[in-house]
Amino acid sequence: MVLGRWGRMIRADWMLYLFLIPGLLYFVIFKYLPMYGIMIAFQDYSPFKGIAGSPFVGLKHFMRFFEDDAFITVFRNTLLISLYKLIFGFPVPIILALMLNEVRVLWFKRTAQTLFYIPHFFSWVIFGGIVIQVLSSKGMVNSVIAFFGGDPILFMAEKSFFRSILVISDILKESGWASIIYIAAIAGVDPALYEAVRMDGAKKRHEIWHVTLPGIKSTIIILFILQLGNILELGVQQVFMLYNPLVYEVGDIIDTYVYRVGLTEQKYSFATAVGLFQATVGLILIYMANFLAKRYGGGGLW
Predict the structure, then answer these.
(1) Which residue range is the domain that position 209 belongs to?
(2) pTM over 0.90
(3) Is 101 helix (H, G, I), strand (E, B) or coil?
(4) Is 225 helix (H, G, I), strand (E, B) or coil?
(5) DSSP three-state, residue 105
(6) What is the CATH number of the domain that holds 106?
(7) Which residues cross the membrane (predicted)?
């Protein structure tokens, strides 16, 4: 009976299922099949012996990571930078979407959206180079400081500035693109709700607080849960392009540590163990955030 019902459903919408196949193949080939390689986190993997021939060592590489003197430093840096991005960066696309939604001059709105979206399409190689040039000793920022009689500041070599540079540059690069989802969610809010609050004499700030934000609450919660799940995965590109040995103490994160110690030294098992640790922490955080969101009536991913 079940197979017959599935067969009828597929025959009725066979074109939709046909379009679904490339997406499913992508996840199977590039996401699920590579999970077999997780086994090397528990082995002393050698490319010449392969996964089947490499000796099993249990939690050796996990313990090595936890006992390494650099573990506390890179874990603290990763956690702090991620929290800063979450606290200061997460609200920016929401605010930007609310502001763009209120613009009524169409040409200005489209121009502003284009300008906000463009940085997303630059790689961190390009965008990082721009940041370095702007903050260099002879860059635009120091030129302004010198104009007002101040002394040049070596921003990229100062530990006190580096984390702020990472957070601000990430906001500048990605906030415009991230706001697209919120703009789409705002477009789906029932216009009758706005008419109702206007009839009650509500001002614009009341419309935003009592209609717009509640209308996109589920979208905000879902994106917050997803970002929370990636709290230990900042990505190697941004930090690798911007940091230098002078700021390792505050800028070295798990991803750059794995690249430097695990991959350049060809310690594949160690790199895989650290990656598995990151993924496990992210999975736990997603489940916790989803549970709390559903418990307090905000909805969740599932």
Answers:
(1) 71-295
(2) no
(3) helix
(4) helix
(5) coil
(6) 1.10.3720.10
(7) 14-33, 86-108, 114-132, 177-196, 208-232, 268-293
